[in-house]
Specification:
By secondary structure, the protein is an alpha/beta fold. It contains twelve helices and nine strands. Strand 2, helix 1 and strand 3 form a beta-alpha-beta unit.
Length: 250
């Protein structure tokens, strides 16, 4: 589900569900939490990179796992994801998400819990939840913190897929690079960050997070509740059924 490798002070977290485009399920999230707790105790690790195995960074929450759940159960599950990703955000080390292929819904949400995002120019980024009948269950506050409220409205209500280049233009990602340079550029940034005094980085990161009220967990809880209210509606349930039927037919 998830792999952690460290080399020269840099930790590489790799999402490993390539057949499911690294969709997030409970097992993957719990594995990530275990790794986060490990990294909290690793002063030798100076920077953290998250990447996806295969054709995508992450295609979002695993609807196959959510489908049999009640709206209340699904919302609780998603809020648990937000708690884990918030722990990633609180790591003292700077974190970078390397985005290629699909970074959709919860996949893009996961990227927003990192300090930096670098995308391939051809990556596909979107938050399509509204089109499916519900609100994103977390990361809405972080999205607004990163790109501002009007761009957040555009991304969430328009549900339009962006390339990495387009995402860089609105500040959703910090850089867009050719796909064959993605990991090299990401590692280059990680090495620069790892070379700096870590106390200064950790203190500044913590200060910035405290100064950003949109990152408070209360907004994830509010988004989870809005998701619950939407997810129990017949239209949303039909969208889930339609999605699963398409998967079966492939």
């Amino acid at each position: 589900m998830l792999d952690l490798q460290t080399k020269d002070g840099i930790a590489w977290i790799t999402l490993r569900r390539p057949a499911a485009l690294n969709a997030i399920n409970q097992e993957m999230a719990e594995s990530l939490l275990t790794r986060i707790k490990e990294l909290e105790q690793r002063p030798d690790v100076k920077a953290v990179i998250t990447r996806g195995d295969g054709r995508a960074f992450c295609a979002g929450s695993d609807l196959r796992e959510l489908a049999p759940m009640s709206a209340e159960q699904a919302a609780k599950c998603e809020l648990g994801f937000a708690e884990i990703f918030s722990a990633l955000d609180r790591l003292p080390q700077p974190t970078i998400a390397a985005l290629h292929g699909h970074a959709l819904g919860g996949g893009l949400g996961l990227a927003l819990y990192h300090d930096f995002r670098i995308a391939s120019e051809t990556a596909s980024l979107a938050m399509p939840e509204v089109e499916l009948g519900w609100t994103p269950p977390w990361a809405v506050g972080r999205l607004a913190d990163v790109v501002g409220f009007q761009k957040t409205r555009w991304i969430l209500l328009n549900c339009r897929t962006m390339t990495g280049v387009e995402a860089a233009k609105i500040g959703l990602v910090d850089e867009a690079v050719p796909e064959d340079q993605l990991l090299t550029r990401t590692e280059e940034l990680a090495r620069r960050l790892a070379s700096m005094p870590q106390e200064g980085i950790a203190r500044t990161k913590k200060l910035l997070n405290l100064m950003s009220p949109l990152r408070r967990f209360e907004w994830d809880a509010a988004a989870s509740e809005a998701f619950r209210e939407c997810y129990e509606k017949p239209e949303a349930q039909q969208k889930v059924a339609d999605f699963l039927n398409k998967k079966k037919q492939r």
